[in-house]
Amino acid sequence: MRKAVAEFLGTFTLVFFGCGSAVIAGPAIAGATTVGVLGIAFAFGLAIVAMAYAIGPISGCHVNPAVSLGALIAGRMSAGDFITYVIAQVAGAIIGALVLYVIMTGKASGWTGGMGANGWGAGYLGEYNTASALIFEIVATFIFVVVILGVTHKLALGHFAGLAIGLTLVMIHIVGINVTGVSVNPARSIGPALFAGGQALSQLWLFIVAPFIGAALAGFVFKAGILYGEDT
Prior knowledge:
Layout: H1 2-24, H2 36-59, H3 65-73, H4 79-104, H5 130-151, H6 161-180, H7 186-196, H8 198-202, H9 206-223
Helix pairs in contact: 1-2, 1-4, 1-7, 2-6, 3-4, 3-5, 3-9, 4-7, 5-6, 5-9, 7-9
């Protein structure tokens, strides 16, 4: 139960503050103070850093079904825990998006219904095509999960794990916001898409499939001992 609560709270925080930075402080709303790509990137990364140190000792701070899948394949968690984590993560993302949605409905003008949802194609940020979006999400998730599994390895400097993971997410967002808005996390995509509707929902499949592919590949790298063999 504690692990589930921790994962719920962590994913709630990631979605509320990460997507909130794009919706409330991002450039989409006229008259608002804008933080731009760097500000949004750091909001997502700092949310992870904060939660890594707050709930990491309880659940490992996956706050991401793709991370949990990578850990499962790498042999670091059970199938039962995986299911529990995913349910808690998706629930946290939905409630985080709900709270953000309620706040935004109180804005007098300027909000067009955007929820920081992921997407691609005509009319979405850099207008990249499906292949670009799919490739980016697979590669970015692979790198992200490799970093997470690496810095949490028994040989790693564990005290700096949260900072390394958060800064990696910042790096990924700096490069990828204009491509897909950056998911690398199915839960993060599901929550906002449910309230944004339309194109966000129709394109949601990619932000579930691609992160799972990238995470599975990363998990296999560790399970096969390609980076850390039995001698380490």
